[in-house]
Amino acid sequence: MDNRRDRLRALGELLRRLRKDAGLTGKDLAQRAGVAQPTISRMETGRLLPTPETVERVAVALDLGQDARRELDTLLLRLREEVSQLKSGLAGREAANAARVRSSRWMAVFSSAMIPALLQTAEYARLAVAVGRDVDEDDAAKAAAVRVDAQAVLFEEGRRFAFVLTEGAVRTWPGSPSLMLAQLDRLVQVSTLPHVRLGVVPWKVETPAFPLHGFSIFDGTMSVVESLTGDLTLTEAAEVGAHEEAFEAFASSAVYGDELRVLLGEIGADFRELAKHFDD
């Protein structure tokens, strides 16, 4: 709790400094950002952890440069992770992940083992949130609902997403072949969105490296590696840069657009054959 209070105070001091550097009063900033002045006051005095939407409004109003925005985002990320640790269960973790997604404008996601959270169907998500865990059924259902609701960001203007999966990730099937057929349809639909770039590295293509683990890069300033027990957040420039290089390497081996949809159709045919064996 003390760490959280310290970070809230540090956030308030940072926002106050950025506001003064911009030559604005608290009232000026509130008017520019379109938020209530008491909200600005509570943020600057460390009494409020702002929502991602409020942060975005304030950042735009302050016309923050890249370095200042990175400093602000890094501090907010650590705060939200500490808050999420106070919440019990899978639903709390999913809520924290959803907040992290909403606070970013650009994401690059690489997965070698499963369909990324933002692309999962509800049934796939229900199994994915519980993988490798002894979970409460109600908690898992709530967590899956939070995960699916978070996917609304895919349709918001001003955001960009890039996903690269290995064919192994697409062919790994929890549940049943029919579940995966619905999941493949979901991938086809997402691949047509104008601000989403989705690629799959076919197994017939030699990969540029061993895909040791998946990761998600947020705005080029942090990379998050998901594990069974929690998330590893990397913010050092060298670490984020290494993940960006790995992402680009796999992205260059992937297929996209019509070629991707042909590949997904071939995988779907294999799942339909599997489904016949399940029906027998």
By CATH reckoning, the class of the largest domain would read Alpha Beta
Radius of gyration: 21 Å
CATH architecture of the largest domain: 2-Layer Sandwich
What are the secondary-structure elements, in order, as H or E?
HHHHHHEHHEHHEEEEHH
How many domains?
2
Name the helicity range: 55-70%
Which percent range describes the beta-strand content?
5-15%
Based on secondary structure, the structural category is alpha/beta
CATH topology of the largest domain: Endonuclease, Chain A
- Number of E-type strands: 6
Count up the helices. Answer: 12
Low-pLDDT residue intervals, each spanning 5 or more residues: none
Spatial gap, N to C terminus: 57 Å
What can be said about the biggest beta sheet? 6 strands, mixed
Query: What is the global morphology?
Result: elongated
Strand order across the biggest sheet?
3-2-1-4-5-6
Average pLDDT, rounded to a whole number, is: 87
List keywords for this structure.
280 residues, alpha/beta, 434 Repressor (Amino-terminal Domain), Endonuclease, Chain A, 2 domains, 12 helices, Helix-turn-helix domain-containing protein, DNA binding, Lambda_DNA-bd_dom_sf, DUF5753
Account of the 3D structure:
By secondary structure, this protein is of the alpha/beta class. It has helices at 2-21, 26-33, 37-44, 52-62, 66-86, 89-102, 122-128, 137-150, 167-171, 177-190, 237-251, 257-279; strands at 106-111, 160-166, 196-201, 215-218, 222-226, 231-234. It has a six-stranded mixed β-sheet with strand order 3-2-1-4-5-6.
